[in-house]
Design a protein that fits this description.
550 residues, mainly alpha, Rossmann fold, 3 domains, 23 helices, 5 strands, 4% strand
């Protein structure tokens, strides 16, 4: 299991970031060190870096104060990948500098500031004492845990607490609840069509989907071959002095933390995020659809956009991304299957997942529909495992804090599902290890899509497969000792063994699901002796890989 990081080191020299911030605010009436009392204290969380948020635009630069805080509790409630922590902190610092340059008063609490309590609650209360504001303003965060903290502030602070909905998303939680109300099931496809119609995206003059179909998934499942031209790598951004200071701070604070910092090159400003979007549309969108499910050794990015971290920090607006993709199709720069697939991920899936998170409530994360109780193996944190597909996928996560959606769903997730790992354990791992992880994204994706722990609220069937799927969509099996077509024996692929064992263990549950009928019929055709051998081999694998509770 992860070890606790060592304590933060005190600064021994002036911070370049602090020097820049102070210089920008010299002479401001509400400089954080001044005695003036602000009208509003506006707390900005690290995933709310939207310069166009109405709550921000409504501020009076001469009377209101922005507060941003770096606290260890937010990097340690799950053991955050060091690139994830660095991305949040660097983006926050750049946001603060940009707002100060625009004339906003900014009180910024750095991770290694003397007196930092290292919690949101402690730093908010210290700021209220320090500034004596008339009101506290906050925007809905990305996590129930934090919203419950805001509830507590509203009950216990002596000043009014005003809450705002972010303008970043297409829908508010109440609007999603209005769509979901009265439905027996919440199915993405129906939601996506409703959103396309609501937002008038990729529709013809009669209101029908362009191309005559809502969904072009059949065209979007190509594997890479020796004849495939690999895409140009995505635009990366070498650390500037502000980011480099953050990287040094993260190394010093969590010297034994998970994840490498050497390859950190994520966009950390709104202008860099726009460059990243332009780069994707220009160089990778055209083939994004065809190869969005493909996995290739040594190619962590393929045709993917790498925009999810920027969207989830609100450095990019989803409308901006959808408009750029549709414009590329209108100009003949990208085919419809690629553009529709990209639009579906943002306008459909992203909004759907967020809607489910708030609609289902804070108890959603306690579900365990399939009664899976296995331990998360320690090698998920190190990549030290003999299955090549997992070693490749986990290695890329450790190196970059990133893996694309098929690696997450059909490699790291598929293994957790079929092996019977406890849903909360794997969900916390996803939250810890990916730079784009925020709870509203991670929890429904893991509990619903990956682990089927919600009983079908997000995914209408479990996304389980044998090793043959991985063999078809990647070159990973070429470098692996296991054989994806074998169910038992020393050379049997663990994915294949666990798949058949998973079906057998859950057959009674799945009988009522029409999408599982063909899979169960295949299970029934296996001789009883082979089913017994599969169950025994699966149990031996759980023991070998450290999955069995104990």
């Amino acid at each position: 299991m992860p070890t606790s990081p060592r304590g933060t080191r005190r600064k021994t020299h002036p911070s370049p970031f602090r020097h820049q911030l102070d210089a920008l605010q010299t002479g401001h009436a509400l400089h954080p060190l001044s005695s003036a009392r602000p009208r509003r204290l506006h707390l900005v969380f690290g995933d709310q870096l939207d310069t166009q948020a109405p709550s921000l635009l409504d501020l009076d630069r001469s009377r209101d104060l922005l507060l941003l805080v770096e606290v260890r509790a937010e990097a340690e409630h799950v053991p955050s990948h060091r690139q994830r922590t660095a991305l949040f902190l660097s983006a926050m610092r750049h946001f603060a500098l940009e707002r100060a340059s625009e004339g906003f008063a900014v009180d910024y609490v750095a991770l290694d500031d003397a007196g930092n309590t290292q919690t949101f609650d402690g730093e908010l209360r210290r700021a209220v004492v320090r500034h004596q504001p008339a009101e506290l303003h906050v925007v809905r965060s990305g996590e129930w845990r934090v919203e419950q903290m805001v509830d507590h502030w509203a009950e216990t602070l002596a000043i009014p607490v005003k809450r705002h909905e972010p303008a970043h998303f297409y829908l508010t939680p109440s609007e999603f609840a209005g769509w979901a109300a009265g439905r027996k099931t919440t199915v993405l496809e129906y939601f996506y069509r409703w959103m396309r119609t609501r937002e008038q995206v990729l529709l013809d003059a009669s209101g029908q989907p362009v191309g005559g179909r809502w969904n072009f998934d059949p065209e979007n499942r190509e594997a890479v071959t020796s004849k495939t031209t690999l895409p140009q790598p995505p635009l990366r951004f070498p650390p500037d002095p502000v980011t480099q200071e953050v990287l040094d701070l993260v190394r010093a604070t969590w010297p034994d933390g998970y994840g490498d910092l050497a390859a950190f090159a994520w966009p950390v400003t709104r202008s860099q995020a726009q460059e990243a979007l332009d780069d994707f549309v220009t160089h990778r969108l055209a083939d994004f659809g065809r190869f969005q499910d493909a996995m290739v050794t040594g190619q962590p990015w393929m045709n993917h956009s790498l925009l999810s971290p920027l969207l989830n920090l609100q450095l990019l607006d989803p409308r901006q991304c959808v408009a750029a993709a549709v414009d590329a199709w209108n100009r003949g720069l990208a085919p419809l299957n690629s553009v529709e697939g990209f639009v579906r991920q943002i306008l459909g899936w992203r909004e759907f997942i967020r809607g489910i998170y708030w609609f289902a409530g804070p108890e959603y994360g306690s579900g365990n529909h399939l009664e899976s109780h296995g331990r998360l193996p320690d090698w998920y944190w190190t990549g030290d495992v003999d299955m090549n597909c997992l070693r490749q996928s986990l290695g890329e996560v450790l190196a970059h804090g990133y893996g694309h959606h098929i690696q997450r769903l059909m490699v790291t997730g598929n293994f957790a599902l079929t092996a019977g790992i406890q849903p909360r354990a794997i969900s916390d791992w996803y939250l810890a290890m990916y730079v784009d992880a925020v709870d509203w994204v991670t929890l429904p994706n893991t509990f619903g899509m990956v682990m089927h722990a919600d009983g079908g609220q997000v995914g209408t069937k479990p996304y389980a497969s044998t090793g043959k799927y991985i063999d078809r969509m990647s070159d990973y099996c070429d470098g692996c000792r296991y054989k994806p077509d074998q169910r038992t024996g020393p050379d049997a692929c663990p994915f294949t063994t666990f798949y058949w064992d998973f079906l057998a263990r859950n057959a009674d549950r799945f009988k009522r699901n029409p999408r599982m009928t063909l899979m169960l019929k295949s299970l029934e055709r296996l001789p009883e002796a082979e089913q017994t051998a599969i169950a025994q081999h699966a149990e031996a694998l759980r023991q070998r890989y450290g999955i069995t509770p104990g």
